[in-house]
Write a structure and sequence with these properties.
- The complex is a heterodimer.
- Chain A is mainly β.
- In chain A, 0% of the residues lie in helices and 53% in strands.
- Chain A has strands spanning 5-7, 10-13, 19-24, 31-38, 42-50, 53-57, 64-68, 74-78, 87-94, 104-105, 109-113.
- In chain A, strands 2, 4, 5, 6, 9, 10 and 11 form a seven-stranded mixed beta sheet that branches. A four-stranded antiparallel beta sheet of chain A has the order 1-3-8-7, with no helix packed on it.
- The termini of chain A are far apart.
- By secondary structure, chain B is an all-beta fold.
- In chain B, strands 2, 4, 5, 9, 10 and 11 form a six-stranded mixed beta sheet that branches. In chain B, strands 1-3-8-7-6 form a five-stranded antiparallel beta sheet, with no helix packed on it.
- Chain B is globular, with a radius of gyration of 13 Å.
- The chains are: A mainly beta, B mainly beta.
- At the A-B interface, strand 5, strand 9 and strand 10 of A face strand 5, strand 9 and strand 10 of B.
Chain lengths: 114, 108
């Protein structure tokens, strides 16, 4: 079974631009969660999607948004990029609720904002 | 105070040593996850547990729900065990809350 894939793997943007990151979950997994990882804050939850519906959202500004398609693939979007958005963005898929199910992580997208 | 605390933050061990990493949490949880992150960023789920003890190879995870504490043990440590180990708990708002991680370095 193919693992979780994320594209692109690396991205460089400038302040004020917007960016879209993509995540393809493991076949059969309906839950996709997104996380931001920075050296200072560690791993932080962004949002979770299940069957095309956002189930939960973390404590991030509205510039961070996401969606999930009928094939469970998910995208997240960050608008009006700030320097502090530089981070590793990870997605993870699971069969169900991320709290109760094993999470399978993608390799991440490393975003650098200049 | 963070909702999930890990100790120690950094750990250096000699190959073959028995290693313990601790995780304490202050929120009610549904399950606790132990994750491993190697340099380069990839994260692997090691264990998910809500009670008792689980074992996989040289790794053992235990949890005490009453004391809100979990431990990850590595027996006969090896340099390839060098990684960051992260504890995460399922929060009441339906998301995972992560500890800051324990950076383990095992010297040959």
């Amino acid at each position: 079974k193919a693992g979780v894939t994320q594209t692109p793997r690396y991205l460089i943007k400038t302040r004020g631009q917007q960016v879209t990151l993509s995540c393809s979950p493991i076949s059969g997994h309906r839950s996709v969660s997104w996380y931001q990882q920075t050296p200072g804050q560690g791993l932080q939850f962004l949002f979770e999607y299940f069957s095309e519906t956002q189930r939960n959202k973390g404590n991030f500004p509205g510039r961070f948004s996401g969606r999930q398609f009928s094939n469970s693939r998910s995208e997240m979007n960050v608008s009006t990029l700030e320097l502090g958005d530089s981070a590793l963005y990870l997605c993870a898929s699971s069969l169900g609720d991320s709290r109760y199910n094993e999470q399978f992580f993608g390799p991440g997208t490393r975003l650098t904002v200049l | 105070k963070n909702e999930v605390e890990q100790s120690p933050q950094n750990l250096t061990a000699q190959e073959g040593e028995f290693i313990t990493i601790n995780c304490s949490y202050s929120v009610g949880i549904s399950a606790l996850h132990w994750l491993q992150q190697h340099p380069g960023g990839g994260i692997v789920s090691l264990f998910m547990l809500s009670s008792g003890k689980k074992k996989h190879g040289r790794l053992i995870a235990t949890i005490n729900i009453q004391e809100k504490h979990s431990s990850l043990h590595i027996t006969a440590s090896h340099p390839r065990d060098s990684a960051v180990y992260i504890c995460a708990v399922g929060g009441s708002q339906g998301n995972l809350i992560f500890g800051k991680g324990t950076k383990l370095s095992v010297k040959p």
